[in-house]
Structures are given as C-alpha cells and as structure tokens.
Specification:
This protein is 21% helix and 30% strand. An eight-stranded mixed sheet has the order 5-6-4-1-7-12-9-13, with helices on both faces. The chain has seven helices and 29 strands. Helix 4 packs across helix 6. The structure holds guanosine-5'-triphosphate (GTP). The site of guanosine-5'-triphosphate has 21 residues, from helix 4.
Amino acid sequence: MQAILLVGGFGTRLRPLTLTTPKQMLPVLDRPMIEHVVSGLGRHGVDRVVLALGYQDDAFRAAYPDGRCAGVELCCVVESEPLDTAGAIRFAYEASDMGAVPSTFLVANGDVITGLDVSELLRLHRAAGAEATIHLIEVEDPSRYGVVVTNAGGRVTAFVEKPSPPAPSRWINAGTYLMEPSVIGRIASGRRVSVEREVFPAMAADGTLWALRHNTYWVDAGTPETYLRAQLDLLDGRRGPAAAGVSGEAVVDPGAVVERSVVMAGAVVAAGSVVRGSAVHSGAVIEPGAQVLDSVVGSEATVGRGARVADGTLIGEGSAVAPGAALSGARVPEAA
Ligand code: GTP
C-alpha cells in the first residue's frame, strides 16, 4: 500500500525548536520523529511513502539521500505554498502520480506515533465500502481535537473540529486515514483546503465516511508536552521494552542527578545539576548546579550554572540560559 505522510506544517507550537529543524526531523529518543512514524507504517504493509513537504523540505532530503527511510521507499513532493491538510493530500497524490494505478491509499499526520494495526482499519473500510475510514482514539479531554460521532456500525454521523464543551463524544480523529481515489475529486485544487474542517464534514453529511474505534498506543507529538511524552513513553516501556534514556556518547558527571530523562549523544551534564522528566539534545551543556525539569534543551544549547528551567520550557538550538536564571514554561529565544 502507498501512504501520503503530511510533514509540511510549520510546527509553531514547538518553536523555537522548529525554527531550525522541521517538527518531524526533531529527535525522539534516538531517531528523528519521522522514522518512528514510517517504521510503524512499514510494519503494517506500507511500502511507499509520499512525503508531502513544504516548510524546510531540504532537511528531509538531506537526511534520506537514497530515498529510503526505515526500510520504506520515499517519494518527496513539495508545495510551493502551504495548501493545508487536504490541499496537501491532493497535491501529493497528483505530483507523485499515485493515480496511475488507482487504489486505496493511506494518509497520516507526520507527528502521530501509533501502534495502529492498519489491517484492522482496512477490514472495516472494505466491509463498509467506505470512501474514507478514520482511526479514532478515546481521550479524556476532546476539546482541542476533531471529535467524531458514529452509529453502531461505524458510519460517521458528525465530525466536529475542536468543539466547545460539552463535546458530543470522547472519540477523536487520531490522524490516520484510508482513502479511495474519489476523495481527491472532493478537494478543490489551487487553494488551502482542510481535511478536518471541509472534506470530512462533507463526507459525513454524504454518509460515505466511516471510523474505527481502536484504542492502542497513540501520541500526537506536536506540542511541548506531547513531544516530551513521546520520549518518556519509550523510557517507561509504554511502547515495547523500556529504553535507556542516556546515550553512551553523552557525558554525565557522577555528581549529577538524571531521572526519567533523555540525554542525547554529545550532551554534557555537569556535577551538581539535576535533569528530570526532560530531553537534552545532542551537544547541549547543563552547567554545574543547573536544574532542567519537564523541559527540552535543544542541540548545542547551554543552561548556565545554577539556572532553573522548568514546566515545559523549550530552549532553541544553540541558545543560552544565563547563569542563575529561573524560567517556567518559557521559550528561549523568547520572540519565537
Ligand atoms: P502547529 O503550527 O504547531 O499547529 O503544527 P503544524 O503546522 O504541523 O500543524 P498540525 O500539527 O495541525 O498539522 C498536522 C499535520 O499536517 C502535521 O504533520 C503537519 O506537518 C501537516 N501539515 C499541516 N499543514 C500542512 C500543509 O499546508 N502542507 C503539508 N504538506 N503538510 C501540512
């Protein structure tokens, strides 16, 4: 099966990390995010992935110069301007010539890491004769997602993007879809079109959209909190055997405390410092007595002596936190 992977967004919620690296090329423990996503698709029968690129497309081509990622063939297409999620699907479908042999294809958001069994999605899609089928996941607070209401057989009766409370359901669009080629004809060309706001609501109204309720491992790693969670889940063994967080090529002083954190190759954690619930990217330096709590320190960044960064602070690549500073939920540099 062929898949279109949407990876052209600006990733504004992860700025300043995404000012220098596109979101799906940010590291998740030991590999770029995209490799976790593509290897999951490859395990479930996807053998060709069309990358729908836009923002910082060169970073992807440089990382996979031989056109393969996690054992899967890649095809790169680039929008000259962002066409939004549905516009990107149409552009990628046409630019990669997927229509040459029209068949069911998969679409996934590039920041969704999931254990979804695609064959289960395909079973429902085929049995229902659906035009498109969406994977749904159940969440506590659906207000910031696309909420999907189905009948008992799985036909979608309502698709409401970011509903005001009370939400009509706790089952949300999990960002993986199967589509028939006819969906492409529903997407206007040459302008921004959102699959969540335009295409799916129209299909729900026509009765051609289905959805599979399937609770499995799932994280949309697009916010500071979930980007960190995607990594800590690997340490906690929520996706297979618990992984080690500290790279063998990092330097952690015996007098430092590193708890439930990722410390990547070439990072230095000095004596008397504390790193807890955080990710310290390659080449970053945590100076003596500094504390990094529930935060991300970008590559080659420095947290100065005695500084404290906490509560979802993001430090951009190569940036510096002054010695003794105290930051909570901050962005460095701030203007980002
Ligand atoms: P934020 O700016 O933080 O909302 O991130 P984002 O730009 O990535 O947007 P969002 O997470 O809502 O997008 C969902 C998926 O669609 C991500 O994988 C994006 O990379 C991708 N995406 C969003 N807009 C476009 C677009 O215009 N073109 C392409 N090719 N992909 C897009």
